[in-house]
Request: fold
Amino acid sequence: MTASSFRLPLRVYIEDSDAGGIVYYVNYLKFMERARTEWLRTLGYQHYSLAGQNFLFVVHSCAVRYHRPARVDDALEVTANLIRLGKATLDFHQQVWRRDELLCEADVRVACVSASDIRPQAMPAALHSNLKNALN
Reply:
């Protein structure tokens, strides 16, 4: 696994599901957000410290495909694979797995914005360089 490919194990709790015990569709996006956040943490960055440097990462867009439902108490693995890096964007392909069964996948574009006015901006050079190294 490269630094651009990350796996986060997690368990489905009742709060993640509907009355039938099936994971509510939007919660897959929450699981993916956690995986991207933890991936960033493995590279030595935390969202709050980045905001203190006047930039944030925000989701620009995503395309989600649902294949199979997850249920309460399932053990899942959520991937975050950085597939493209721009000056102000990161493109991820993410998947949610239950053992060898693909449940959900998404292509997610994350944008770098100024924390003060939420306008797009290029990533700081050092961060961009570290992310570029993670792609290789």
User: Anything to note?
Assistant: The longest strand covers residues 101-114. The two ends are 11 Å apart (CA to CA).
